[in-house]
From TrEMBL:
Region spans: Disordered: 272-320
Keywords tagged on the record: Cell membrane, Chaperone, Coiled coil, Membrane, Protein transport, Transmembrane, Transmembrane helix, Transport
Localization of this protein: Cell membrane; Membrane
Protein name (Swiss-Prot/TrEMBL): Membrane protein insertase YidC
Gene Ontology molecular function, alphabetical: membrane insertase activity
Lineage of the species this protein comes from: Bacteria, Bacillati, Actinomycetota, Actinomycetes, Micrococcales
Source organism per UniProt: Enteractinococcus helveticum
Amino acid sequence: MGFFDTILLPFTWAVSWVLSMFHTVLGALGMDSDSGWTWTLALVLLVVLIRTLLIPVFVKQIKSQRAMQELQPEIKKLQEKYKNKKDQLSRQAMAMEQQQLFKDRGTSPFAACLPMLVQMPFFFALYRVLVSASGAAQDNESIGALSADEIHSFSNSTFAGAQMSDILGDHVGENFDLNVVIVAVILIILMVTSMFYMQKSLMGKNMSEAAQTGQFAQTQKIMLYALPAVFAIGGFNFPIGVLIYWTATNFWAVGQQLFIIRRNPTPGSIAERELNERRAAKGLPPVGKAAKEAEERAAAKEQKPKGQRQQPVKKPRKKR
């Protein structure tokens, strides 16, 4: 067993045990244990479980992203301060001041990637399980908590004519299989499109005007195209089962993000303005930045000094 396999061993056992449990429960409910749809539903339930457990991490990500957006004006001032200073000491001083800003707000540029980083060990563990399924089935071996019978069942199950362990890259040349190509390409398109839409909606509706310029915005734009491109290329080497898992994960993430954007948008964003428009139509008070501005206007109005009191004018006395 290699070093990487040793690190992934606990995650492999966890993923395979949960997958086996869901498959057993679905079989007990009357579904065909050897059907690819049963294994597909087991994978989807695995996604639901992992994403549910990651909700606290997702909430932390949202808070960190908003803190980063609020910091953009201060970061821009810091960049202007050291704009023409290229020496090493100035660069170090700028980096230290920037780190202090992040520390004071309790955030960092990497917090936005936290849910994905937490998911990656489980993803790699599932990838190893599914890639090894064909070989383990031939050798009648188990993988993690999945028994030899379950591995054999999984390896031979099909989803829309493609086996769960099939890989697109293995069926493009001499071993061309039209079913595998069609299923894999559709899943890759769904996976990449949902990922792009998720990032695009975040940038388009849930970022304040201040956050749409500067280094943070540039990072978001790079991620908008880089991540889908990486997964599109990687999809050629993903088993069908992994493509199902990652597509389901993206659809869950899109739904979760749309819910957050609609109910609790970033202050100063387009989504917040749309939320306040809906609240105004229902006769409800505004929330977020608009509510704060309304309070400030009301407070300023109350503190506004009143004009001098008009003195009474004496009536002229009548001449006798």
